[in-house]
Task: inverse folding
């Protein structure tokens, strides 16, 4: 008898709890505005975060795990520091860095969208020209 009461209570609790749907990381896309940059210092990398379901920019996310390295050239240890800049528009996230060598660089970034469990991640190939 006690087992039946517990089972019935569990069903009632489960039914009465609100069901909330969360988006997946695949529902968002990170895009790099430019992929070709001139050699030198103070390059500004602009990343856009878009909700693919609505096509609208996503503001208020926390971007982290930024890394800029020359892994595409086989020199993963060759890195450049990345610093955050203020945004100019909703859904835009800006960074500054020094592109100290010509060639292909990889810019890695992760975003945490408020209210979402999954992390959105992207790796971009950047070409640095003379």
Result:
């Amino acid at each position: 008898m006690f087992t039946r009461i517990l089972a019935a209570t569990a069903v009632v609790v489960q039914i009465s709890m609100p069901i909330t749907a969360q988006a997946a990381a695949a529902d968002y896309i990170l895009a790099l505005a430019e992929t070709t940059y001139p050699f030198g210092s103070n390059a500004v990398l602009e990343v856009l975060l878009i909700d693919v379901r609505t096509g609208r920019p996503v503001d208020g996310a926390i971007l982290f795990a930024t890394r800029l390295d020359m892994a595409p050239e086989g020199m993963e240890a060759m890195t450049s520091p990345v610093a955050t800049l203020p945004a100019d528009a909703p859904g835009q996230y800006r960074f500054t860095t020094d592109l100290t060598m010509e060639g292909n660089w990889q810019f890695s970034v992760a975003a945490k969208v408020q209210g979402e469990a999954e992390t959105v991640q992207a790796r971009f190939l950047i070409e640095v020209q003379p």
Observations:
- Strands lie at 28-32, 36-38, 40-51, 56-57, 62-70, 75-80, 82-85, 92-99, 103-112, 119-129.
- The first helix runs from residue 2 to 16.
